[in-house]
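Intended use. Records like the one below are meant for learning the mapping from a protein sequence to its folded structure. Do not use them to infer anything beyond what is encoded.
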Amino acid sequence: MTKTAHLQIMKYNDTYNSLNKITNLEDYKLLLGKFLYGQLDAWKLNPHNGREIAYEIAGMLSTGLALGLPDDDPYMEVLLMAGELELPDEHKGEATWEELAGRIEALQSKS
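Structure written out for the chain above:
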């Protein structure tokens, strides 16, 4: 495992664990947003790793407060779209990384 891959796993695990401890929705979205922006940067640097990056983003769906977000919440939309992008091409539907990137960038402009 490369040093970069190891740091990415640590970042994912730390973020996941931290999100599970947060009980305030505003704080939750702030940390989730930071994670999403980092994942977007990782995709821009290595777009060929898109499926793995989408898998990590979609993994945040199982954190505590994510389960209570409505489907039309912008953060939930990003998580659900990442869930599509982690699937093999024949199963992922219409989702594209470009659209996901635009949604993440839109979150950044709101925070």
